[in-house]
Specification:
By secondary structure, the chain is α/β, with parallel strands linked by helices. It has 4 domains: 4-161, Lambda Exonuclease, Chain A (Alpha-Beta Complex), CATH 3.90.320; 166-212, no CATH class; 231-289, Ribosomal Protein L15, Chain: K, domain 2, CATH 3.100.10.20; 312-548, Up-down Bundle (Four Helix Bundle (Hemerythrin (Met), subunit A)), CATH 1.20.120.920. The protein is 45% helix and 18% strand. The chain has helices spanning 6-14, 16-24, 32-46, 102-119, 143-162, 171-179, 201-204, 206-212, 278-287, 312-322, 325-353, 357-375, 379-395, 420-443, 461-466, 471-484, 504-519, 533-548, and strands at residues 4-5, 49-53, 56-66, 71-81, 84-91, 125-130, 135-140, 231-234, 240-244, 247-252, 255-261, 267-271, 275-276, 291-294, 300-304, 493-496, 499-502, 521-523, 530-532. The strands form 5 sheets. Strands 1, 2, 3, 4, 5, 6 and 7 form a 7-stranded mixed β-sheet that branches. Strands 8-12-14-15 form a 4-stranded mixed β-sheet. It has a 4-stranded mixed β-sheet with strand order 11-10-9-13. Helix 1 (6-14) packs antiparallel against helix 2, helix 11 runs parallel beside helix 16 (471-484) and helix 16 (471-484) packs across helix 17. The longest helix has 29 residues, at 325-353. Bound molecules: iron/sulfur cluster (SF4). Iron/sulfur cluster is lined by residues 15, 17-18, 189-191, 194-195, 198, 200-201, 204, 206.
Length: 561
């Protein structure tokens, strides 16, 4: 990479962290401010070319580049009057109280310096036009401002080089940097008014980071984020999914029985023998809508996901942590302790509603398991602790179920589920796994490289790790709700070669309750704000990413009371 784009120099001066996310990680998010800015620029660009206006020669969208500054980009407008060259930049917002914003001044001045180099002219000043103020402001290109431009370019390049992917380095350097990254590459959050309306705020989590580093109060609310709000489940065996205009068409035997605007969808879940057209697959990929595949019997089989984020650096940090015993054990302990703690919370909740000696005893055993997990020194030890903790939890799972509903539960059996309750648990874990894979993918981590669950062919180990903390509170809770509210009956199950499965029609009820559970809000134990589970998946994946990249010194799992 030889030239820094001019617009990213503006971003760097505005906030180096935002520059890091957008330029280095390639995480571009379009919010209303970004969209409005793009539209304004498109309008300016539409008038591209050269013309005479009010006696001035006006050129629009002028390309400039400088080998000396290692910078390149477009100037919105260059005016020429009486031999004087004047660059003009268009901005959508309002001018600041102290005049044009420093980042805009640096961008304009950098553009002027490149004009001087390219056109061999002197450019002493330019204008910034703020649409929100409907006024243009003169900016003089003083020596001080020119020096600021050079300093900013140098600091931006330093950051880029620091984050250069390992494969661009020489072998010895590569080995050294893999072993010792020398601190997190991501700059600290500016954590001030600039964050209001910042398009990458959901990735940056400046409020959460400032709080975790003891620099501010807990955040008041989670930042808005895209979440899987509208999920299309397709369960009809033999159905075919095609695309008509901007809609998904679900048909079977020549009869169309559903048409849904694709723009309204956040995810598609295909269960069993269902075909999909290639144009639809491509469209969903382009739109960034994940498609998850479950077998006809409800087992998670994989996902069709948009391309991974360009953030290779984060994945390198993940692989580095995988090779680091200390980090691996910290994460494995965190996942297991969170799962056991949340299991205990469910048992205690039930014990409060309906006291029973066995529930108290199971809660005590789970507390001991959490304590033992905290002290576990090896993965094998942790595996043993998790095993007896889970055994304590499932030994009283039947007491979570309302009597007289016809459901019984003896122990957890997975492949195959040998009773209706186990069938429901397996289905709930499959859906949870698909959701967590999507969250991990969104963040840019590799779902196949886990810490507690060690890599095994085609096993989404990191998703299995991260879903541990959600298993009791999301998946198990859905199963308990379905049974205790009488939403499913024993007749809703079929037995195939000794294994129990939920029938096709009853699955619709299951999916609806699962989606409802994901929309329920909890108080996040660390940040204390209310957040729906669906958003918590992504939040936890981001916190994990921040630990892996070295920004946080520990992972903060989601544990409930
Ligand atoms: S939210 Fe704030 S700290 Fe984070 S990238 Fe945006 S401006 Fe920078």
């Amino acid at each position: 990479m030889d030239f820094l784009p001019l617009s990213y120099l503006n971003t760097f001066v505005f906030c180096p962290r935002r520059f890091y996310y957008e330029f280095i990680e390639g995480e571009m998010r379009i919010n209303e401010h970004v969209a409005e800015g793009q539209i304004r620029h498109e309008r300016v660009d539409a008038q591209m070319g050269e013309r005479c206006e009010d006696g001035k020669r006006v050129r629009r969208r002028v390309y400039v580049a400088s080998g000396e500054l290692k910078l390149a980009g477009y100037l919105d407008v260059v005016e020429e009057e009486d031999g004087q060259i004047v660059p003009v930049e268009y901005k959508k917002g309002k001018v600041g109280r102290a005049g044009p914003w420093p980042n805009d001044q640096v961008q304009l001045c950098a553009g002027a310096m490149m004009l001087e180099e390219n056109w061999q002219v002197r450019v002493p000043f330019g204008y910034l036009y703020y649409a929100g103020s409907q006024h243009r402001y003169r900016v003089d290109f003083t020596d001080e401002l020119r020096q600021q431009v050079k300093d900013a370019i140098q600091r931006a390049w330093e950051l880029v080089h620091r984050c250069a992917p390992l494969f661009e380095r020489e072998t010895a350097e590569m080995t050294a940097s893999f072993a010792d990254p020398g601190g997190p590459p991501v700059p600290e959050p500016v954590h001030d008014a600039r964050c209001n309306g910042c398009s990458v705020v959901t990735i940056c989590l400046h409020d959460e980071i400032a709080f975790l580093k003891g620099k501010d109060k807990p955040p008041v609310r989670p930042q808005p984020s895209l979440g899987a709000e509208n999920v299309l489940y397709v369960n009809e065996q033999g159905a075919y999914l095609g695309k008509t205009g901007g809609r998904i068409r679900v048909e079977k035997d020549g009869r169309v029985f559903r048409e849904i605007p694709i723009q309204q969808l956040d995810a598609v879940i295909i269960c069993g023998n269902i075909e999909m057209s290639t144009p639809l697959e491509r469209y969903l990929l382009r739109e960034g809508i994940p498609v998850h595949f479950l077998s006809a019997l409800g087992r998670y089989e994989g996902s069709l996901l948009p391309p991974l984020s360009k953030n290779g650096l984060l994945r390198l940090c993940q692989y580095r942590a995988f090779a680091d015993v200390g980090k691996t054990m910290h994460l494995a302990r965190s996942f297991v302790m969170a799962k056991l703690t949340n299991m205990r919370a469910l048992v205690l909740r039930r014990a409060r509603q309906s006291p029973h000696e066995r529930l108290s005893e199971a809660a005590m055993r789970l507390r001991r398991a959490v304590e033992a997990a905290a002290k576990a020194k090896t993965l094998a030890e942790l595996l043993g602790v998790e095993g007896w903790g889970s055994e304590a939890y499932f030994s009283v799972f039947a007491l979570q179920l309302r009597e007289g509903m016809g459901f019984d539960f003896q122990k957890r059996t997975r492949r195959p589920p040998t009773d209706p309750v186990n069938a429901l648990l397996s289905l709930a874990y499959s859906l949870l796994c698909a959701d967590v894979v999507a969250a991990i993918h969104t963040v840019g981590l590799d779902p196949f490289i886990g810490f507690y669950h060690r890599p095994k062919y085609a096993r989404p180990c990191l998703a299995l790790d991260l879903m541990e903390e959600f298993r009791p509170v999301v998946a198990d809770s859905v199963v308990i709700t379905l049974i205790n509210n009488g939403m499913l009956k024993l007749s809703d199950f079929e037995v195939v070669r000794g294994a129990y499965y939920l029938r096709e029609r009853a699955r619709e009820v299951f999916y609806a309750v699962y989606e409802r559970r994901k929309s329920e809000t909890i108080t996040h134990p660390t940040f204390k704000y209310r957040i729906p589970y669906r958003r918590a998946f992504e939040l936890q994946a981001r916190i994990l990413g921040k630990y892996l990249i070295g920004e946080l010194d520990q992972y903060y799992p989601l544990v409930v009371r």
